[in-house]
Design a protein that fits this description.
The protein has about 80 residues and is α+β, with helices and mostly antiparallel strands. It has one helix at about 65-75, and strands at about 10, 20, 30-35, 40-45, 55-60. A three-stranded antiparallel β-sheet has the order 3-4-5.
């Protein structure tokens, strides 16, 4: 697996679709929490190391949407 932590940008959708960064991750999801209208997703480091982690913030439209999305991530990752 490539452990390069630089984001690569792809555009695989329709013409004019926003380009989104893709970050290669070797570590697994270790925690998910809805905080207001945001879902915080804790992951092991991009290299899979045990000593550090990364937190992604997924912005949602409403707190209810954040709770629903967080619960689906918790189910999917068994967290």
């Amino acid at each position: 697996m490539d452990t390069n932590t630089e984001a690569t940008y792809i555009n695989t959708g329709c013409e004019g679709e926003a380009v989104r960064p893709m970050v290669a991750m070797a570590g697994r999801v270790t925690g998910i929490e809805a905080v207001g209208s945001t879902v915080d997703i804790w992951c092991q480091s991009p290299t899979g190391g045990e000593s550090d982690s990364q937190i992604f913030h997924l912005i949602c439209n409403t707190p209810a949407q954040a709770i629903l999305i967080a619960s689906q991530w918790q189910i999917r990752w068994g967290v």
